[in-house]
Amino acid sequence: MNDGNSRIVWHGRPWQMRAVTERLPNGQTMERAFIDHPGAVVLVPVQQTAVGFNVLMLRQYRAALGETILELPAGTRGWDEKWLTCAQRELREETGFRAASLIYLGEIWPSPGVSNEQMRLYMAAGLEPDPLPADADEEISVQPMPLPELLEMARNGRIHDAKSIIGLWWAAEYFSNQ
Amino acid sequence: MNDGNSRIVWHGRPWQMRAVTERLPNGQTMERAFIDHPGAVVLVPVQQTAVGFNVLMLRQYRAALGETILELPAGTRGWDEKWLTCAQRELREETGFRAASLIYLGEIWPSPGVSNEQMRLYMAAGLEPDPLPADADEEISVQPMPLPELLEMARNGRIHDAKSIIGLWWAAEYFSNQ
């Protein structure tokens, strides 16, 4: 995306949008827009209970959708920030806990047609209270829920957030392989 | 997103980007950008074989990533297009088949922090050749692969495209409940 025909159309704190003029095989030209994104982390914070594991889910207001949704903690990486540093920071900001261990589950592209965003998913275990101030623009509350119930919600379409569906599935697979 | 403080910063054929100036609880203002998106369909086209089901996957060049990825057929809806009309059109454009039945699997938000895009997922069955011309800006090839192999790739992180991971999981669940 660094050819000579591109221009930045919006530049924000975390990411920017670039418009690129392309010549198509049929000879026409067309402008397309892409998001240049530093990547993000997705966290599956787990706490052992008497009967299994709870996951710390968030209820977060999403201005793009105009509604409050159920999702896993997640956040955008700084351009030069290390992935594990980002994971620990976002966990502390959004849940108030730090993790003794961050277990890599895999990576996903949420919107490869529009953005180069890569999300790295981690299970966060061994949680200890160690909060950081939340971002001023975020409205979130933490809601612990049993993993089996969440897995069923992800499987049958009652959770709509893509990263959360995948994070819950992969976390459940991790435990089933232990 | 239709308050008085927003402006369109880019307007494309399928979607547009809007920047919104928000006043934060701490009194500061901040500009954030969102994609206004008409939604998209994701298709899981299945063909019965002697031993089970194949899924018609795509290998598609994604300019945002700068690479060719493995993913399910999918496409953006026209602003006034009916969802099932969109599903049949995208299936014919991208795979060359029409479906006798489109089975709704569920819906997801791929990027609720940035976009209001909603994706509706359908299994496409009863496939008959009935191609439409592909979009001039798309470079795709169709690759049939066995559903059990794809499910395993989605489960263990060898497929990175979020919509495809979820579509394959939900399709496999559909068959396991039959």
What are the salient characteristics of this protein?
2 domains; 178 residues; homodimer; 3-stranded antiparallel sheet; 7-stranded mixed sheet; 44% strand; 21% helix
Question: Can you put this structure into words, describing what you see?
Answer:
- The structure is a homodimer of 178-residue chains.
- With 178 residues, chain A is an alpha+beta fold.
- Chain A has two domains: 34 residues, no CATH class; 137 residues, Nucleoside Triphosphate Pyrophosphohydrolase.
- Chain A has three helices and ten strands; from the N terminus they run βββββββαβββαα.
- In chain A, strands 4, 5, 6, 7, 8, 9 and 10 form a seven-stranded mixed sheet that branches.
- In chain A, α2 packs across α3.
- The radius of gyration of chain A is 18 Å and the shape is globular.
- Chain A starts with 5 loop residues before the first strand and ends with a helix.
- Chains A and B meet through β2, β3, β8 and α3 of A and β2, β3, β8 and α3 of B.
Oligomeric state: homodimer
* Structural class by sheet pairing and helices of chain A: alpha+beta
Number of strands of chain A: 10
Number of helices of chain A: 3
The helical percent of chain A reads: 10-25%
Mean pLDDT level of chain A: 93
State the end-to-end CA separation of chain A: 42 Å
Beta-strand percentage range of chain A: 35-45%
Named CATH architecture of the largest domain in chain A: Alpha-Beta Complex
- Which of globular, elongated, flat, extended, rod-shaped describes the shape of chain A? globular
Reading the helices and strands of chain A in chain order gives EEEEEEEHEEEHH
Question: How many distinct folded domains of chain A?
Answer: 2
- Under CATH at level 1, the class of the largest domain in chain A stands as Alpha Beta
**Low-confidence parts of chain A:** none
Task: Using the CA coordinates, give the radius of gyration of chain A.
Answer: 18 Å
Q: What is the CATH topology of the largest domain in chain A?
A: Nucleoside Triphosphate Pyrophosphohydrolase
Largest interface: A-B, 56 and 56 residues
